[in-house]
Write a structure and sequence with these properties.
By secondary structure, this protein is an alpha/beta fold. It contains 16 helices and eleven strands. The strands form three sheets. Strands 2-1-3-11-6 form a five-stranded mixed beta sheet. A four-stranded mixed beta sheet has the order 8-9-7-10, sandwiched between helices. The chain starts with 49 loop residues before the first strand and ends with a helix.
């Protein structure tokens, strides 16, 4: 999930009201019919021009793939509609389109954490899903006509497109946070391996910053601005400490020592280890900061790998960095599960074309090309073990393990309100407006009604 600038963030692993398997299937509003056109998979009809609504495509690869589709489908042309970088803004524009029942948007590129909200509100069409056993082996996401075969995809990604056991979105890209680090500076400081704990990371920073090459570099950065990225940072920090924002029972779980330890890590890191402008840096701002050579360590999504290695002069760190699993308090940390899924608007015309286009973009060939062009994480499992891909992207084994063990953000039908509450309280804590304990208590109180069954 890289979270997104191109086309990042997230995760249906059953931890919040209405989305978790442990909760009652009748807890949320609506009935079992699914999509707003009467439910089920009926209504996937109509052929002709469609739109594809997504975040910004900085690589140019998406447009290349769309151009190839358009060349082969002169009567079913796709027009790309690019939304702003910030996921909150993307979500709001998609919701505005849905609430007006506009047919302007056909295929939606959704952050994985939006599935429950969009499906529960009947803004998406349910998609026909083939059995997950005995699939295509990665050659195509469609094993039989009219049904989407997900068996070649990583199981963690498949869950993100489901709501109440039904499929509403097809995994297109996945994501999990990784630790980018200046391998050249660590070597010069006599450090042979990347840190596995926070303390090892701080100790490495202290050594690097004593070098002439590292004296002007900041130690660490993870996003702590008041956006969706704050929710991601909070999930990773609190989970790494052994806590959770939402417990297994679907209720807020912020009144714990583990939650406090996780938040205090962010507070202390912001105060003593991050750039002064940390609260103003978004995902792209963090990427540019790292590429300028001003950071020793950075928590970031896979999409940055290709951009930071560009040899066109845009990156001061090309060939000088590596990636590793995120560190934690006492050992390896926990990454947040991000990524994007493709869904069909319930109000779109030409839904049959939309489904075919989704199959095209999520197929193994398209995902391979996208990985090569953007370094975004694929959802096809075999690509992580492809020797050619691993040679070009050495981080793939690390990323695959991170995705398989990643922690999702809270998944809720009222996700917008849930993430806004998390962002606000976490921001107040890291900027010193509230003590960590008070911020957690206030968040506990806010999340109670929002996650009530």
């Amino acid at each position: 999930m890289r979270r997104i600038p191109p086309n990042g963030g997230t995760p249906l692993a059953g931890i919040v009201a209405c989305a978790a398997l442990a909760l009652s299937l009748t807890a949320c509003g609506g009935d079992d019919d699914g999509g707003s056109q009467g439910g089920g998979t009926a209504g996937l009809e109509g052929r002709g021009p469609i739109t594809f609504v997504t975040g910004k495509d900085r690589s140019g690869n998406l447009q290349k793939q769309v151009d190839a589709w358009n060349s082969d489908h002169p009567q079913e042309q796709v027009r790309v509609i690019e939304l702003p970088d910030e996921p909150n803004d993307q979500r709001q524009q998609m919701i505005q389109n849905a609430t007006t029942k506009s047919d302007a948007y056909s295929v939606l590129n959704l952050d994985v954490v939006w599935t429950a909200e969009f499906a529960a509100n009947r803004w998406l069409v349910e998609l026909p899903m083939a059995s997950l056993s005995g699939g295509s082996g990665g050659s195509s996401p469609q094993a039989e006509k009219g049904k989407i075969d997900l068996s070649a995809m990583l199981p963690a990604t498949v869950k993100t497109g489901q709501y109440r056991g039904r499929l509403y979105a097809v995994p297109s890209t996945s994501d999990a946070g990784m630790l980018y680090y200046r391998e050249d500076l660590l070597e010069k400081a006599g450090i042979a391996e990347p840190p596995k704990t926070y303390q090892e990371m701080w100790d490495a920073c202290d050594k690097v910053q004593k070098l002439p090459e590292g004296e002007d570099a900041d130690c660490y950065f993870t996003e702590v601005n008041k956006t969706e990225s704050m929710t991601i940072s909070a999930v990773e920090a609190i989970t790494a400490a052994g806590g959770s924002i939402i417990g297994p029972d679907g209720k807020p779980a912020l009144n714990t020592p583990q939650a406090r330890q996780g938040l205090e890590f962010l507070v202390d890191a912001k105060k003593t280890r991050m750039p002064k402008e940390a609260v103003t840096l978004d995902t792209e701002g963090g990427r540019r900061y790292f590429q300028s050579g001003k950071l020793v360590f950075q928590r970031q999504w896979p999409y940055q790998y290709a951009l930071a290695n560009e040899d066109d002069g845009s990156s001061e760190v090309a060939g000088k960095f590596a990636v590793a699993p995120l560190p934690g308090p006492d050992g390896p940390g926990v990454a947040n599960l991000g990524g994007h899924n493709l869904a069909i608007s319930a109000f779109a015309a030409n839904k049959a074309t939309s489904l075919d286009f989704i199959n095209y973009l999520t197929g193994a060939d398209a995902q391979r090309a996208n990985l090569l062009a953007t370094s975004q994480a694929p959802t096809i499992a075999a690509l992580y073990d492809d020797p050619e891909m691993v040679k070009k992207f050495p981080y793939l084994p690390v990323l695959k393990k991170a995705i398989e063990t990643a922690e999702p953000r809270p998944v809720a039908v009222k996700y917008g309100d849930v993430t806004a509450a998390i962002q606000g309280e976490m921001y107040d804590a890291v900027t010193g407006k509230k003590p960590a304990e008070q911020a957690l208590n206030d968040l506990q109180a806010k999340l109670g009604p929002l996650t009530a069954q």
